[in-house]
Amino acid sequence: MPKFSSTLVRNSAFATLALLGMAVASKLLIEIFSFSLKNGYGSYCVLIPIFSAYMIWSRRQHIFAHLCYDLIPGLLIIVFSLGFSAVALSRTSVNSDSFLTFELKFFALLLWLTGVFVLVYGRQAIKRALFPFVLLALSAPLPPSVADRVIGALQTGSTAAAYSLFSLLGTPVYRDGFLLYVPGVTIEVAKECSGINSSIALIFTLLVVAYETLHTPSRRFILVLLAIPLSFAKNALRIVTLTLLAIHVDPRFLTGSLHHKGGIVFYLIGLAAVYPIWKLLQRSEVRQVSEPSPALRPTANQLGAGIESPESMAISNR
């Protein structure tokens, strides 16, 4: 009963202080939520906190195994968050409410939540929950200039991959920038066709899978890094599939539901493509754990030292 009471007090304290910080930053959170609804590629802003909360919940036995109140480091982080809030407010007061001001407000809120977490649960808990907290920092909207560059990179990579796939299938194709000329059809890989939504969903899905199922940073990095070529490949497959269906079956495929709402289909195809690589990474971890390290392997001399030769046995018996 005392343990349950202590846990309840900690959770209540964290929830109260966290909600207090979010209430103060309610205008900022409403702006982020509104942005995620208005901009198609901004849906990740709402999804990342859900991913982070799930990661902490799924590892709660490990994260909250050893708890303590860390007053000094927790209060220091909270003070830093208040400092960032003051800087953001000063920029707002002089009509300098730029994207930098927005980022300062968001960073102040993250510092507040981190400080409260350290204060209530301790440094060991934040070390074990570091990845979900770092991931939470990515839920801020991308600056417009950065978003345009990401979309442009997806357009370029998807166009090149689609051109290669058309050529591989023996379909005559000519490329001019983001335009692909196929007999009877001209395809433009526009910003809306960059596949940024499904690409972001693929990245965060692989992040969660890597965090939950792999244990070495290098293998986690490899799995998440696969999202980049897979994004180009699935977009190219979508472009080529719709184009060939429009040429050989019905031109309305280029304007139908598969074109506008088929992102989920090719997202699932991308996940299916990464499955065998994920299994290989898992098996390589199992082999690495099961094999003894070279330092622990007995050498030939060590093996021989434990076995007496017939001659030595005869001498010892005399």
Would you give an account of this structure?
The protein is 74% helix and 3% strand. It is mainly α and 318 residues long. The protein has two domains: 2-138, no CATH class; 146-158 and 190-290, no CATH class. The protein starts with a helix and ends with a helix. Mean pLDDT is 80; it is low at 302-318.
Percent range for helical residues? Answer: over 70%
Order of helices and strands: HHHHHHHHHEEEHHHHHHH
Uncertain segments are 302-318
Strand content: under 5%
Strand order of the largest sheet: 1-2-3
What structural class is derived from the secondary structure elements? mainly alpha
Tell me the domain tally: 2
Q: Residue-averaged pLDDT, rounded?
A: 80
The main β sheet shows up as: 3 strands, antiparallel
N/C terminus separation? 71 Å
The number of helical elements comes to 16
Question: What's the shape?
Answer: globular
Secondary structure: number of strands? 3
User: Radius of gyration over alpha carbons?
Assistant: 28 Å
